[in-house]
Specification:
The protein is α/β, with parallel strands linked by helices. It is 40% helix and 20% strand. It has 24 helices and 24 strands. It has a five-stranded parallel beta sheet, with helices on both faces. Strands 6-7-8-10-9 form a five-stranded mixed beta sheet. Strands 12-13-14-16-15 form a five-stranded mixed beta barrel. The N and C termini lie far apart (74 Å). A hairpin with a 2-residue loop joins strand 15 and strand 16 (476-487).
Length: 704
């Protein structure tokens, strides 16, 4: 085997991604080469080839450098290695610039002078093809590593990539590798159940986490070792680092989102560029993905080093904006960059960040249409719930593997009811629902969609897209929908009555197009210090033009008609009913006619009654409240049955006959109790029905 190499040098230095490194190390060691590896530390060395590492390799006696999954943009670095007397072989799959490195050889599936039929290989795929050439036969024992690297690199799963992954998955299920067993153990999956999703969501993040936080060498050693104990130890370390990486990503993502919202309060531009000192440069690519997912804009996230005044970061793009080509137009301020149409890495002077932001936005304004700035979801199969079948779902696996360029079918369920909904997970960031349609039902889970739980009300009708899977528990199989997105055109009523802590519900209300309404004059003083937004009066609402999406009813209206008028004027899509009532009358109720009769007879017999002196004594004697006693006296006074003078009550001379309900205070109490019963103390179902019926009766089509 050593003779096939026909290379005299005593040492090799190879700079790779984790799986690519393992593939190349395996083949070179099998063929008797004296080889070592070194993976650039992205914190110290940045992205791509690094002259400092080349010097270090030269000092150790290295004569040949082989790069995998990087190097195509290392023009100056390769020239530096050549000047030292070392040969360089470039093996890469990233986009090729205007100039190729002056290397001994450049192995690239899209080489301008080549005619390779499939140009979408991942970096590990290129390494596998080199291994194939060196072995002079297909290296089947490397197919599982190639599958892992291909899925993790997010290349399109067609052509040779599809073969790599399909064959690799079959090999992974039966793999004797200690590393695979260890990864399954720390990920909590069974080896016989490995799919492309296992690689993408369980293995990939753990393998990549170490390179994002420190040197990635332990991940390579895990794949190379034959010792199960060492593999388990190294895999456990990767698992710990992955948890640390998740916490770091969460913090930086929150800060980046806040930057965007503060910088662009009136709407985001065509391209987002955010930068900050102290951000971990190893995870900014993940943060960029989150920005692009949330705002659907090309996003660049940069970590600024105050000591070097350099900004290092990553970018993610959307369809229609070729990231590599657009960055290439700014070479004068981007000394180091590389990547694909949809992703890239870069280093630039911190002082040029603002300039880059301005330039890219001008470029995007020319290249991106308004339609391209709107995310589009292509639906494959519209379904009714009663059409979902376990056998059909299981047969879908025959089309696997799914991934980039060959996505899982998206199923569309229209007009299903939310029978139940709750947030799940330690951080309450996932969603669990039961969806119904006529007699059929299905469980639905939305990972990362926990916030949607605050935006849907019981029994609302929704449209859902997602992936159908089979959930097996205790030998029982049930269909399950993995939710990707949710939409509803129905108006919704959010019940926040009785929640005294304003902070518990105020944060759930979207900030855009909202109105906090107070019907009573004293209400704003109760809430203004607790709310960051201004509180409107009924008069201000009537003067508003156009509809408002989110209406918060802070207190009870004076009447049903007042509330109906507000709704008709505002046409909200969401109503948040708080209905604060400082002096509720509902439980006080109205005294009975027997109570009124007894009190009138009591005053008549005594001739006078000193309310100021004897109110509490009489109320206690009769088991009434002070408020009830005062209310009855007020009714008598308004009807002219009694006179009141400095707290002294006397029967009026020749009072006219009138019904108690004719007293204004009596009418107001009746109306208040009825209003509280309908709005404040009704069940959610009855309250919703009242809103629906009231609006329908007025023939106002206000819910859109």
């Amino acid at each position: 085997m050593g003779e096939k190499l026909a290379i005299d040098s005593k040492a090799y230095l190879s700079l790779y991604g984790v799986t690519s490194t393992t593939v190349m190390m395996t083949v070179l060691q099998d063929l008797g080469a004296d080889v070592s590896f070194m993976i650039p530390n992205r914190f110290k060395h940045g992205y791509g080839p690094n002259s400092e590492l080349f010097q270090q390799a030269f000092d150790q006696g290295t004569k040949l450098i082989v790069t995998v999954d990087n190097g195509i943009s290392g023009i100056e670095q390769v020239d530096f290695a050549n000047a030292l007397g070392m040969d360089v072989i470039i093996s890469d799959h990233h986009d090729i610039g205007d100039q190729l490195p002056n290397a001994l050889a450049v192995v690239h599936p899209r080489h301008p002078q080549g005619h390779y039929p499939f140009g979408e290989l991942a970096g590990v795929g290129v390494a596998f093809k080199i291994a194939h050439a060196l072995y002079e036969e297909i290296p089947d024992h490397l197919i599982e590593l190639t599958a892992i690297g291909t899925v993790a690199d997010l290349v399109p799963l067609h052509g040779e990539n599809r073969i790599f992954v399909k064959e690799g998955l079959a090999a992974l299920i039966d793999s004797p590798s200690p590393a695979i067993a260890a990864l399954c153990e720390v990920s909590g999956v069974k080896q016989q159940d490995i799919t492309e999703e296992t690689i993408g969501f369980m293995f990939g993040p753990r393998i990549n986490a170490i390179g994002r936080l420190q040197d990635a060498d332990p991940a390579v050693r895990m794949f190379l070792t034959e010792d199960p104990a060492e593999a388990r130890s190294l895999a456990s370390g990767l698992d710990v680092l992955n948890k640390e990486r998740q916490a770091i990503v969460k913090k930086i993502s929150e800060e980046a989102m806040q930057q965007v919202e503060q910088r662009y309060p009136d709407g985001v531009p065509h391209v987002l560029v955010v930068a900050q000192e102290g951000w971990n440069p190893g995870v900014v690519g993940i943060v960029a993905s989150k920005l692009t997912e949330k705002f659907y804009r090309p996003s660049i996230v940069l970590s600024v080093d105050p000591e070097t005044n350099k900004a290092k970061g990553s970018a993610r793009s959307i369809e229609g904006f070729h990231l590599y080509n657009e960055l290439a137009k700014n070479r004068d301020i981007l000394p180091h960059f590389g990547g694909h149409p949809m992703a890239a890495g870069m280093t630039l002077a911190a002082s040029d960040v603002d300039d880059l932001r301005e330039r890219l936005n001008k470029q995007a304004e020319i290249s991106l249409t308004e339609e391209e700035l709107l995310p589009v979801v292509n639906i494959d199969i519209p379904l009714r719930l009663d059409e979902i079948d376990i056998t059909a779902i299981e047969s879908m696996r025959l089309l696997a593997p799914f991934g980039m360029g060959f996505a899982k079918p998206k199923f569309y369920l229209e007009g299903v009811h939310v029978a139940s909904i709750r947030k799940i997970g330690a951080a309450q960031n996932h969603l669990k629902m039961e969806l119904t349609q006529q007699a059929a039902s299905i469980d639905a889970v939305g990972f990362g969609l926990g916030s949607v739980g605050d935006e849907l009300t019981p029994d609302v009708k929704i449209d859902v897209i997602g992936d159908l899977q089979v959930n097996e528990w205790n030998g029982r199989k049930k269909p399950q929908l993995m939710v990707e997105d949710v939409r509803t055109d129905q108006w919704q009523l959010f019940d926040i009555r009785g929640i005294r802590q304003v902070s518990r519900w105020s944060k759930l209300i979207p900030k855009e197009n909202q109105v906090f309404l107070a019907f009573k004059e004293e209400t704003p003083a109760l809430f203004q210090s607790l709310l960051a937004q201004p509180i409107c009066t009924v008069a201000q609402v009537k003067a508003m033009s156009g509809s408002k999406d989110h209406l918060v009813l802070l207190d009870l209206p004076e009447s049903e008609e007042q509330l109906v008028s507000v709704l008709a004027n505002m046409k909200p899509k969401r109503v948040y009913a708080h209905f604060h009532a400082k002096d509720s009358q509902y439980f006080e109720q109205i005294p009975t006619r027997e109570q009124f009769k007894w009190l009138f007879s009591f005053i008549k017999k005594r001739g006078t009654f000193d309310f100021t002196k004897h109110c509490d004594e009489l109320a206690k004697h009769k088991g009434w409240t002070r408020e009830s006693l005062f209310f009855m006296l007020q009714v008598f006074f308004e009807l002219g049955f009694v006179t009141l003078n400095n707290g002294i009550t006397e029967i009026a001379q020749s009072p006219s006959k009138q019904d108690l309900s004719e007293a204004p205070i009596y009418k107001r109490r009746e109306q208040q109790i009825a209003l509280e019963q309908k709005l404040l103390y009704a069940s959610y179902k009855d309250l919703k029905e009242w809103f629906d019926a009231t609006v329908s009766a007025k023939e106002e089509q206000i819910w859109i």
